[in-house]
DNA sequence: CTGTCGTGTGAACGTCTGCTCATACGTTCA
DNA sequence: TGAACGTATGAGCAGACGTTCACACGACAG
């Protein structure tokens, strides 16, 4: 514990290089629950199967069975993923007899998808 | 293997309920490389530590050491995450002596963050 | 009622992921 | 040149994740 200023190889320095910038950046961080919700939203979007589901639902509303057909996944897998998307408020659904017909919950999803699409298109230039 | 039409409990039906909707949705899906890139972008955004990094960089550019201070993570962890963000073209950096100063790569990141933020704010109403 | 359909769900399992630890590399300064 | 600094990276490990499998449940037809 002696020689305090020399034994922090992996810790980097305890004090910041640019204290002002660190303070400014720290203030800009979201509170914990907001940060958690943000991560949840993006977590819902990071799986290829869920992205396919959302892209499909951008075009038209679909029941679970048809979503399975569109994505090429099993009905069970789709149902599990829809549960995630429902919990994140990214999709909504209505019952139609024995079927459950899903649709996008709001337009934020479309914007998120289109922005990400723009990004990947741009970096290919 | 007989009784072909009765033993597909988990497979759901092989033909779609709403063939037209399925065809329309299927056409709207992105090609495989685009889908992969989209998933990569959102995968980069779904980790709390990386979200903190990007939020911090929305305010000001920062070196690795200061990012570690802002996020409360180790320098190694931040460096690993920055590698992910670099590979996804979400951040860029310049060398300044021994330091590496990182910044957001483009404005798509800001839009993505703000849209997700709007979404989580809205569903709390 | 009985059987089938469409869907939801829990357990199990293999894979992916993000962390720590240790170490290496390039830069700066004495 | 040698030491400290800032950063990058690989190995290893614990936990999260997505799938399959098996099954339960409500709705509808016969």
**Which homologous superfamily in CATH is the superfamily of the domain at 48-122 in chain A?**
Winged helix-like DNA-binding domain superfamily/Winged helix DNA-binding domain
What's the end-to-end separation of chain A, in Å?
53 Å
Oligomer: homodimer
Shape of chain A: elongated
If helices are DSSP runs of H or I spanning 4 or more residues, what is the number of helices of chain A?
Answer: 6
Radius of gyration of chain A: 22 Å
Query: pLDDT below 50 for ≥5 consecutive residues: which ranges of chain A?
Result: 1-12
Describe the model.
The structure is a homodimer of 125-residue chains. Chain A is mainly α and 125 residues long. Chain A has a domain at 48-122: Arc Repressor Mutant, subunit A. Helix content of chain A is 58%, strand content 11%. Chain A has six helices and three strands, in the order H-H-H-E-H-H-E-E-H. The first copy, chain A, has helices at residues 19-28, 32-45, 48-59, 64-71, 75-87, 108-122; strands at residues 62-63, 91-96, 99-104. In chain A, strands 1-3-2 form a three-stranded antiparallel beta sheet. In chain A, strand 2 and strand 3 (99-104) form a beta hairpin. The model of chain A is unreliable at 1-12 (pLDDT under 50). At the A-B interface, helix 1, helix 2, helix 3, strand 1 and helix 4 of A face helix 1, helix 2, helix 3, strand 1 and helix 4 of B. The structure holds a DNA duplex (30 and 30 nucleotides).
